[in-house]
Amino acid sequence: MKPVTSIFDLENLARERLPAVIFDYVHGGAEQEITVQRNLDDMKALALRQHDLRDVSERTLAVTMAGDAARIPLAIAPTGLAGLTWANGECEEAKAAADFGVPYCLSTMSICTIEDVAAATGKPFWFQLYLMKQREVNESLIRRARDAGCSALVLTLDLHVQGKRWADAKNGLSIPPRLTLSNGMDIVKHPRWLLGMARSKRRTFGNLEGEVKKARNVSALSEWVESQFDPSFDLDTVKWVRKLWDRKLILKGIMHPDDARLALDVGADAIIVSNHGGRQLDGAPSSISVLPGIADAVGGRIEVFFDGGIRTGADIIKALGRGARACLSGRACLYGLAANGREGVACALKLLEEELNDCMALTGITDLGQVEPGVVTAQPSL
Ligand SMILES: Cc1cc2nc3c(=O)[nH]c(=O)nc-3n(C[C@H](O)[C@H](O)[C@H](O)COP(=O)(O)O)c2cc1C
């Protein structure tokens, strides 16, 4: 592998290794990708307060997230179809997270199943649930997550309909990817990826395969999935899930202080301030811009996590300085997985840790459990 000095190098390696249809799926977002760009731009625009006259020789990076130990304030975010970037990708990503010591969250839309990941790591992980219209499927997924020892259920709130991803539609993304006239040449030019897929245990929505009796083949399963996103999802739906799940419940996709207050009312243990990495509502504000208002509304009563645009360790400090307890990373770890499997994910986590550690030293922070307000500011005008 070429020398990797940052997440951006992993992104470039992922771009080289993956066929465009898969890279665009990972990298892109909804419609014009306004919100994808806002997440990155607004993060970059924030300034860090430099503090030099402090002894920072002892620094504590570890925190807990929903009761689970995290060596750095970061969990791996749920990403559907991660297993299309690397053979048995979700298992590899989960193993890297377990070795490193951060929580891993498996998506409902993964290629590997809940049971595959449990067997691969032997450690508790988080399971992300998309509520399907067919309620028995949700009940079954929740039961399976409990039986597999998942310590937290992450309920995603922002999928009443699926955001339109123009690149995926143009590239003819299908599950599993099919050779078509338009993408055939490109896929064939990526033999390492093709070989990896040939070695993969599964190639479709692993968690749902056995649940949907009438979906006798893969294309029927994909059609079923598309028909299952539920526009009637509301607070009562969340209450229904809360009754079924007695371990930690984390609500993902909070972008407004009112929704954060409702999360308190329904007994959530934590929330994730997230716009789905800009893959749902194009035009939504960046998640870092709404974080302080939401953290204020919650007032420390439950844990506030953040995702959207984490590409460096400094970005983690920026989120903590604006009120998050910890962050999740979607693309940064996925680029690592696509670049070099489990080792690539380990590399992404190590890079973020090193950058975080350096950033703490230069901003005078010794304990990430206690980042004072004022560490993050708007860039002063000249
Ligand atoms: C390829 C991809 C697939 C995703 N799939 C899911 C998913 O299945 N469930 C979910 O709740 N969020 C999903 N997300 C959103 C992530 O969990 C997370 O909110 C987002 O990636 C954070 O932004 P970042 O990529 O800039 O870190 C996905 C994101 C990406 C990039």
UniProtKB/TrEMBL annotation:
Similarity section: Belongs to the FMN-dependent alpha-hydroxy acid dehydrogenase family.
Lineage: Bacteria, Pseudomonadati, Pseudomonadota, Betaproteobacteria, Burkholderiales
Classification via Pfam families: FMN_dh
Gene3D superfamilies: Aldolase class I
Protein's name according to its UniProt entry: Alpha-hydroxy-acid oxidizing protein
Positions of the FMN hydroxy acid dehydrogenase domain: 1-381
Taxonomic superkingdom: Bacteria
Chain segments annotated as transmembrane: none
Residues the record lists as binding FMN: 78-80, 107, 128, 130, 156, 252, 274, 307-311, 330-331
GO BP field: aerobic respiration
Cofactor(s) for this UniProt protein: FMN
Record GO cellular component, one term: plasma membrane
InterPro entries: Aldolase_TIM (IPR013785), Alpha-hydoxy_acid_DH_FMN (IPR012133), FMN-dep_DH (IPR000262), FMN_HAD (IPR037396), FMN_hydac_DH_AS (IPR008259)
Active site: 276 (proton acceptor)
